[in-house]
Amino acid sequence: MSRALNGIVNAWEGKLKKSQAPAKKRANSLFTAMSVAHVDDDDIHPPGEVYHVEKVFSNGDVYMGQWADNCPNGHGKCLWADGCMYVGNWCKGKTMGKGKFSWPCGATYEGQFKSGYMDGEGTYTGSSEDTYRGTWVCNMMHGKGERNYANGDHYEGHWRRGQPHGNGKYLWNNGNQYIGHWRHGKMNGNGTMTWANGHRYEGSWEDGLPRGNGTFRWVDESFYVGMWSKDPKEQSGSYYPSNSQSGSFDWDPQEVYLKLSDCTINPGENISVFPSQKTVNWPCEGEDLQKHSSVRSHKTNDSRLRRASVDGSLSNAEHSLGSESDSSLDGSSECLDSGREVDERSGAHELDMSSGYPRPHIVLKPTKKQGLTISKGHKNYELMLNLQLGIRHSVGKPAPATSLDLKATAFDPRDKTWTRFPPQGSKHTPPHQSCEFRWKDYCPLVFRTLRKLFKVDPADYMLSLCGNDALRELSSPGKSGSFFYLTNDDKYMIKTMKKSEAKVLIRMLSAYYNHVRACENTLVTKFYGLHCVKLTGAAQKKVRFVIMGNLFCTQYAIHRRFDLKGSSHGRLTDKPESEIEATTTLKDLDLNYIFRMQKSWFQEFYSQVDRDCDFLEHERIMDYSLLVGIHFRDMSRSGKLLHADANVSADRSPIGNGDQTSDRAAPRLSTTDLDTPSYPIRWPSARLGSNIPARAEVTVRNNGEAQLVGEPTGEYYDVVLVFGIIDILQDYDISKKLEHAYKSFQYNPSAISAVDPRQYSKRFRDFIFRIFTEDA
């Protein structure tokens, strides 16, 4: 039998060498010499015993390798009659583990298999050199990966069911490039298209075309901002020339859609037959294997129902790499029941403590966008329109290039400009549908330079604040009576101000500018503009407001937020755990964690808090706080929190490439944060104050004691932290001095917020360095 089998194998190898001639350089014969124990078919072996066989089946298929329980088990090679081959690991008759599959056309797949499917990390190389290297699920590219197309195009990013989906970068062979979000293989969401000649479009996309707010930029730095649509009737916007440009300008935005005609997405090479479709119908199978097959079939039907309940249905994209027949999905209960598609954010967890402490009850609820959208009919609708018109005027008007070295005159409080906005428009202002108002810019050159220092792109800034998307008003004003507004993309926050606060900011503006310029990683609030709207008419109402960065604009869901001052009087939120939302701001006495940071992060944090507090103390500022946002990484698929290993430091969280040596490795990103939970998005970069990996140790306060910091319990959660110093516009004026004197008679003077800036700074630092520590 051995001589006949070797003859068949040699004949097949000869046939395959001819068919794989174009791929000869990259594919060696899979059927090299192999030492096997020759076994007669009539031999009887006990259940579970692994032995070597060489089998030729009646349909021409050949198998050589380890065998147990009447099917392949262990390492083996299979050659099908149509020329397909597999060499690698098997389990209960299915390809499982590491292996290599080859097609007669010369295409190969080398990587992980699961229950007959390409599943896990693997590389597919097509007969035309079309190559994909990355993650697979159920024969489909799914997860993170990169693909080199036969025509020279290249895509690197995230995939879902065989198509680009999520964040990714596509480079065409003509030099054009798109970086941004994808949906079902098309550009969709926010993204940037850069043409080979340097022109680029940044903004919203829908089904592969610009749609919504966007900016088109020329290489000479002139740009067009507006609402984009394939329908010219829906297209609207404004053109802003560069400083060097003069004369009239005639350009049709519809030209952009013509430019996209040579930016089609390559469909790639189709796979003719999938490994899961090539499982041999072993003629020697016993009743045990048939029983296993029946169980797998039953599980498959159950898992299909579960998958359908999440996705709605098994989409057409599931049939492709290219394309995949529905039959190839049969028999993979593990693949479809892997839970990668499930996203259940809400859940509760009772902390199990064996140390005798009470068991805190933590409830994490789904995160949602804050605020109420300001639409027509809202009491502040016209104010929002005025604000957007003013900002567009201030940011969009041509201005000379600015140097970071500003003269003292730029910080003069008298450096302000008034602009009148009549409804019919004027020489310098566009017509509008709001009431007439006047617009004031405070120290415009300083704030223009601050935006440059903070690396804020003018067009992006204008698009966030002045695009067609309305602002959102937070549900209630702050303690000071100020109102807060958020941009639709959550990048910027607008706060209305009292006159006294505006005066403080202008007074300390020079020192603030020098501080943020010297400290690139400062934690103090970033200010981008200070303005005033004055309504005409009988009211003569003045509204001053400042534009700031939104601390919680991050790709992580913020599950808990704390406003921390280091004082105890009035620093408790009177809410039961069940009523605490993700947007609830908790206070000092609500905090029941100590945050343990990696050594390099903690040293930088310690140093920066010191520098920031020195600056605020010097400027006689008090009543500021450290705003902290917490994202819990340890969430099960049901939304429950899981404990971190107390012996594992938070810095051992590789980005996904296995590199654990970097001091700045960003944390793993759980799928519970994503709008589309079945794939991970690109790893957010960590910098001081943003996306910092840490471990949160649970603390418990003794009953009856108003401890500022509780006792550590040894229970940990892996977390991602976002933090910054806010509310830095309150100086120690006469009102705060009177408040300090009055409350000192009633309460412990060290427990109240209104204290001298020097005392405030010391107390703040002492508290912060107790709840933020180095992870040993």
TrEMBL record:
InterPro entries: MORN, PIno-4-P-5_kinase_pln, PInositol-4-P-4/5-kinase_C_sf, PInositol-4-P-4/5-kinase_core, PInositol-4-P-5-kinase_N, PInositol-4/5-P-5/4-kinase
Keyword Cell membrane: no
Keyword match Flavoprotein: no
Annotated spans, Disordered: 289-370, 652-673
Entry's Gene Ontology molecular function annotations: 1-phosphatidylinositol-4-phosphate 5-kinase activity; ATP binding
Enzyme class, UniProt record, top EC level: transferase
EC number, UniProt record: 2.7.1.68
Any one Gene Ontology cellular component term annotated for this protein: plasma membrane
Highest taxon of source: Eukaryota
Protein name per UniProt: Phosphatidylinositol 4-phosphate 5-kinase
